[in-house]
Every structure is written in C-alpha cells, then in structure tokens.
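Exam revision sheet. Question 4 asks you to relate a sequence to its structure. Input first:
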Amino acid sequence: MDISSRSGFVHHDNPYLTALLVIGSSFFNIIILNLIIAVYGNEYDKVEHDSPLLFQHSRARNCVMYTLTCDVFSWRGRAFQLLLYAAATLLQVVSVCARSSECVFSCVHAPSSRVLPES
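Answer key, structure tokens:
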C-alpha cells in the first residue's frame, strides 16, 4: 500500500495556464491595491484640514467622559457628584456651541483684510 502524497494524483504541467494564472493574479492585485490607495488618499485629503478640530473634539469628548465617571470621586459625597454632573453637562454644551459657531470665532479672530485709506 502506497500512501505517499503523489499516490493517485496525476499532474500534467501546463506552462501557459500557469503563466496566465500568474499574470492574471498580479494584474488583479495591482488594480485592487491602486484602488485602495486612491480611496485612502482621497479620504486623507478631505480630512487633513479638519484634523486639529477633530483632535480637539476627541480630546473634549474624552475629558467629558472622564468627568462623567464620578466613581473616581465617590468619596466626596452626593453633592460633589451632582456638581461634577453639572460641570460635565456645561462642558458638553460649550463644546457643542463652539463646534457649531466655529466660523464665527474664526472670523472674529482672523486678521482684518480691509485696506485702510492713506492720509
């Protein structure tokens, strides 16, 4: 009884089929990788100018979530926990207002582009 790996397996090498398989696989993988790179490039270009704002928003969200976990300060009593809830709510409202009126703040702090008349 022959139990080798080639027993009962008839293999005919076809170099054309092998070449077609290698070329087709390479072509397909190159196209897929180029599409993935293009999608990531476009998304990066869209988000690049918003990255400081996104960072500050994530930072504010983490600060609020940390403040909302009042278990850290549970030894201070119920009144202190209510104060923390009020502070967290205030921070959340301020962050939402700042996010919605971002262009107002940027216009106020932007240098004036008006030309003053010469005397």
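Marking note for examiners. The chain has one domain: 15-109.
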